[in-house]
């Protein structure tokens, strides 16, 4: 696997996602503990994962990074849904289940949020999470996101309607915490 580090941290590094990562990504995105938490509805085969890599990861409309701990991929994180006139983006991430509760997601999120505000000039970063995903809600709140609202029965996942909690983080809030 490549070792090009884009953003480094104390326990995780963030690097570009490469072709060599496709098998890891496909395996994880088909794990119910991952796809359910991010609202994915259908399974992903190798061709679909490659298409996502070529069209989204390699495109210019998003920032997608591999979260790596001790040289091992443990998840992904990125910014998407950019609205440049409003200086807005949405944060998205997942960590492989065998690497949960090690602080990797929080450290990766802090680094990407800092990158968004400091390097991309964003004013606002949003994130959304299902009500049942208490760990992700706690992660967002621990790094400074504020819950701004709830879309009741916002998405149908795994045979049920789920509330979607929306969070936001403003640049000046980030600067006052940093």
TrEMBL record:
Record SUPFAM superfamilies: Acyl-CoA N-acyltransferases (Nat) (SSF55729)
InterPro entries per the UniProt record, alphabetical: Acyl_CoA_acyltransferase, GNAT_dom, Ribosomal_N-acetyltransferase
Name recorded for this polypeptide: GNAT family protein
Listed Pfam families: Acetyltransf_3 (PF13302)
Xref: PANTHER family: RIBOSOMAL-PROTEIN-SERINE ACETYLTRANSFERASE
Span of domain N-acetyltransferase: 12-173
Gene3D superfamilies reported in the protein's UniProt record: 3.40.630.30
Species, as recorded: Halalkalicoccus tibetensis
């Amino acid at each position: 696997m490549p070792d090009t580090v884009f953003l480094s941290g104390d326990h995780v590094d963030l690097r570009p996602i490469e072709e060599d990562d496709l098998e890891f990504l496909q395996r994880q995105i088909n794990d119910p503990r991952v796809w359910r938490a991010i609202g994915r509805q259908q399974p992903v085969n190798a061709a679909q994962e490659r298409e996502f890599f070529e069209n989204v990861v390699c495109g210019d409309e998003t920032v997608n990074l591999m979260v790596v701990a001790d040289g091992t991929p443990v998840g992904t994180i990125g910014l998407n849904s950019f609205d440049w006139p409003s200086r807005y983006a949405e944060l998205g991430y997942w960590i492989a289940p065998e690497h949960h509760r090690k602080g990797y997601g929080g450290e990766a999120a802090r680094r990407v949020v800092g990158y968004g505000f400091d390097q991309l000039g964003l004013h606002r970063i949003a994130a959304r999470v299902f009500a049942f995903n208490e760990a992700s809600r706690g992660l967002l709140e621990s790094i400074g996101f504020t819950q701004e609202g709830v879309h009741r029965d916002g998405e149908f996942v795994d045979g049920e309607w789920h509330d979607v909690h929306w969070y936001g983080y403003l640049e000046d809030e980030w600067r006052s915490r940093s």
